[in-house]
Design brief:
It is built from nine helices and eight strands. The protein is of the alpha+beta class and about 260 residues long. The chain folds into two domains: about 60 residues, Arc Repressor Mutant, subunit A, CATH 1.10.10; about 170 residues, Beta-Lactamase, CATH 3.30.450.40. Strand 6 and strand 7 form a beta hairpin. This is HTH-type transcriptional repressor AllR.
Length: about 260
């Protein structure tokens, strides 16, 4: 059963969102929605009474109550759920192997993994631990630490294992690599974990001070990973990271979904 008043209320909120902070008068909103001004005026009064919109000179704008409602929604969404939703909604990532990880000392712990559709046999799965020094997700998270902390944390050579001939095991070289990650804004593992596989990763911006740091990554076949593909992957991972940081970001602007 439809509820015209509720539908009009939601359409008012959509108009005010599109206004980008500018006020809209009742007459203008009624014109855009093709409804009578008198009926829309009553809707606006009801929304104002609940704090969802606020009246100011020239009309209405979105109210502070929406911040509270949005915060309540965000508190119900966990990063793992947001990760899988992004893997589903971002077309570039459908077929790729993707990971969500956190840093634990000198290792990364995988909280979620998307298998993709590529014919790769990888051992990374939920609950797996990998050395942070050689993984793209690990490097993305290490980039948030100071150089002195990196030197202290990875002082023991055992924390810098060589899984392939390309693995960076020298401490100074590791610190230089992490500095490059900070400069680029994303991490790259070129065959350090699995030969022929390029790992790419970005960190998830925390919403709150002290929040657990996350990183999202993708594993691509090196032979197909040219500059264009890598850029697409980084853009897709950045959209995913923004979605995990704030699930209401997914699809904003339209471009991210079709990557």
């Amino acid at each position: 059963m439809s509820a015209p008043a509720v539908t009009r209320a939601l359409r008012v909120l959509a108009l005010l969102e599109a206004a980008g902070g500018e006020t809209l008068g009742v007459s203008e909103m009624a014109r855009q929605l093709g409804v009578a001004r008198s009926s829309l005026f009553n809707v606006c009064l009801a929304l104002e009474a609940e704090g969802v919109v606020q009246r100011s000179e020239g009309g209405y704008r979105l109210g502070r109550r929406l911040v509270e409602l949005g915060g309540a929604y965000l508190r119900t969404v966990d990063p793992v759920q947001a990760f899988y939703q992004a893997c589903s909604d971002i077309s570039f990532l459908h077929d790729e192997i993707c990971q969500l990880a956190v840093l634990d000392g000198t290792e990364v712990l995988y909280l979620a993994a998307h298998a993709g559709r590529l014919p790769l046999r990888m051992t990374a799965s939920i609950g797996s631990r990998f050395p942070a020094s050689i993984t793209a997700v690990g490097n993305a998270l290490l980039a948030k630490l100071e150089d002195d902390e990196l030197r202290h944390r990875f002082e023991d050579p055992a924390t810098r294992p060589a899984w392939t001939a390309h693995s960076v095991t020298d401490l100074d070289a590791l610190i230089d690599k992490i500095r490059d990650v900070r400069g680029r804004g994303h991490a790259r593992d070129e065959g350090e974990v699995f030969p022929g596989i390029r790992g790419l990763a970005v960190a998830v911006a925390p919403q709150y001070s002290g929040e657990q740091a996350y990183a999202v990554g993708a594993s691509l076949l090196e032979v197909y990973c040219n500059v264009h593909i890598e850029q697409q992957a980084i853009e897709a991972l950045s959209v995913m990271a923004a979605h995990i940081a704030n699930p209401m970001n997914l699809g904003q602007g339209g471009a991210g979904i079709d990557l």
